[in-house]
Amino acid sequence: MQKQKKELLRNRLQEIIYESNTAAGKAFDVSLLVLIVMSILIVMFDSVESWHAEFGRLFLIFEWIFTILFTIEYILRLVSLKKPLSYVFSFLGIIDLLAIIPGYLSIFFVGSQSLVVLRALRILRVFRIFKLTHFLTEIQFLSVAIKGSLRKISIFMLIVLMLVVILGSVMYLIENGENGFESIPDCIYWAIVTITTVGYGDIAPVTPLGKFVASFIMLMGYGIIAVPTGIVTTEMALAARRNEQKNEVCPRCGKEGHDKDAKYCKRCGELI
């Protein structure tokens, strides 16, 4: 009987924490979202020297409040799963852990000299922003689209790299190693800056032929920038059509985003 009650409690916790298609789940997600945004704002405000000097103690109190709340959330996530280690070593599990570790590390850093270290450790709290992905399960196709386009973009970038090396070498010959084009690496740097339309202006061609080649590279840069965007956009459109997934979360490992016709978890094989 006691075991059955624990199982019901764990299932209820899992429903609230991991599933957003219920009223309790939505309330939990919204509350967690507010806490995440507030904690990030505190980190940002505390980095302002004048505000830290005036409100540093208040910021520290808020940081401990957030640390305790996120610790409770982390423990509840572990308790609600049959296989908690799957969550601990997952990407989001590591991010959640990084969000609470700095607060407890501050206990072991005592003394005025360590205050600088503590403020640097608090920057790790910004990693909490990755926890926002808990609320974005409906656009998981974005990661699928990026993975699908990675190979095409890699090949394209390899071609661009070859093009930059060739054009940089050509400019080295045209400018005769003068006017800032003193070496082939410098020329490659100029080609990258030009082809990406950044245009720092620290190196500029002087010869008529050099200006012609530079103009050609500038115009070509617009097309080069558009290609990766088109590849990712196409993959996103294809992934969106395939993105009909279940909202159920695996009760064993917490895996989300299963296929619509899936009966078992794609990670651990548990019945969902």
Q: What is this entry, summarized?
A:
The protein has 272 residues and is mainly α. It contains 9 helices and no strands.
Description of the structure:
There is one protein chain. By secondary structure, this protein is mostly helical. Helix 1 (about 1-20) packs across helix 2. The longest helix is centred in the middle third of the chain and has 34 residues, at about 140-175. The radius of gyration is 26 Å and the shape is elongated. The model has no long low-confidence stretch (mean pLDDT about 80). The chain has helices at about 1-20, 25-45, 50-80, 85-90, 90-105, 115-120, 140-175, 185-195, 210-240. The protein is built from nine helices and no strands. The protein has two domains: about 1-135, Up-down Bundle (Four Helix Bundle (Hemerythrin (Met), subunit A)); about 140-240, Helix Hairpins (Orthogonal Bundle).
Note the main sheet.
Answer: none
Q: Mean of the pLDDT scores?
A: 79
Question: Any idea what the radius of gyration is?
Answer: 26 Å
What is the third-level CATH name, the topology of the largest domain?
Answer: Four Helix Bundle (Hemerythrin (Met), subunit A)
Number of strands: 0
Give me the CATH architecture of the largest domain, please.
Up-down Bundle
- CATH classification class of the largest domain: Mainly Alpha
Which features would summarize this protein structure in a list?
Helix Hairpins, 9 helices, Four Helix Bundle (Hemerythrin (Met), subunit A), about 270 residues, about 0% strand, 2 domains, mainly alpha
